[in-house]
Each structure stands twice: as C-alpha cells, then as structure tokens.
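Dear colleague,

Thank you for sharing your sequence with our group. We've completed the structure prediction you requested, and as agreed, I am returning the results in plain text so they can be pasted directly into your records. Please verify that the sequence below matches your submission; if there's any discrepancy, let me know and we will rerun it promptly.
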Amino acid sequence: MGVFALIREDYRAFSRLRGDASAARRRLLFLPRLLINPSLHASVLVRFSNGSPAWMHWFWRNILIWTHSMDIAYRSEIGPGLFFPHPHTITMAPGVVIGARCRISHMTTIAGNVGSARAPILGDGVAVMPGAQILGEVTIGDNCVVGAGAWVDSDMPAGSIAVADKAAIVEGKAEALFGPAGILPY
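Please find the predicted structure tokens below.
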C-alpha cells in the first residue's frame, strides 16, 4: 500500500471515531483537519517518514520529533488505519510491526530489549494506552488492549488485556517527605 493510500485509511479511521458518516463531509474537512488536528498531522508525518527513502527519512523524522516529540525509527511496518489520540512522546524502534486499525496513545515505548533479535509485533485492532511499555521480542495478538502504565515483556494472546498494578497508598508519609505544609504550589 502506498503512502497516500495509508494516509487515506488513517483519515477514514479518524473520521469513523468522530462519527462522520458522509464521504462528502470527510473530503470537505480533510485539509482543515490536517492543518489543525495534531492526530492527523502526526499520522501524515509518520507515513511520510516511513515511506521515504533512507536519505530523506531523517528530514521527516526530525520534523516529527520537533512537532510531536515522537521518534519513529526507519523500517517500522505500520498498517492502515493508524490513530494517535494524543500524539506526543511516542517511541518506536526499528523493525516494529503494527497491524491495521491500531490506536497508540502518548508516552508509549514500543521497542526490543538490548540484544533482541527482533522488535515487538502488534496485531490488528490493538489499543495501546498512555504510558504503556512494550519491550522485547513479544507478539501482541489481534484486538488486545495494553492498559495505561502497563509493562509488557511477554506475548499476549488475541483479545486479552494487560493492566498495570494498582498504586499502593502509603498513609502518613507525606509529612515526613515534604514537611507539614505538604507540596507547596509555585
């Protein structure tokens, strides 16, 4: 699939999430949304970055880093229908494979561990929530959800959910750490 066909599919996924049923409305609003909406802007930059030859990849990658703090390595395979709800601080290592219709939230890392033979593989319809870390030679099955703050370093079967541990509440320690006034505002 070419770069512009992938951009068209990403825009269709974005429009479905917004509830746009009319093809005429989608066509009419494409350019204003592209200019204003950071999700579409990041998606287009990712497509140009990945679809460019190696000598041109650095240009699009630097614009992506500068505008969205996203670092998407060259040679990542990303399927159609990609959606970034909040396109900030997302990192993908070389060789990452992402299926169709995936949603990747902010503060996410998808990378192999040091010395890994391959990068993670995400199936179709995977949702990666904010702060999730997918590390190592893992395969995430179709229609999985990687929850907020989850650390995934083993395979996930199709249709499963990875959740982070619940925060532990430690009573009576705030005063010892921050004094009787607590954390003072700026």
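Summary note from our side: The longest strand covers residues 108-111.

Kind regards,
the structure core
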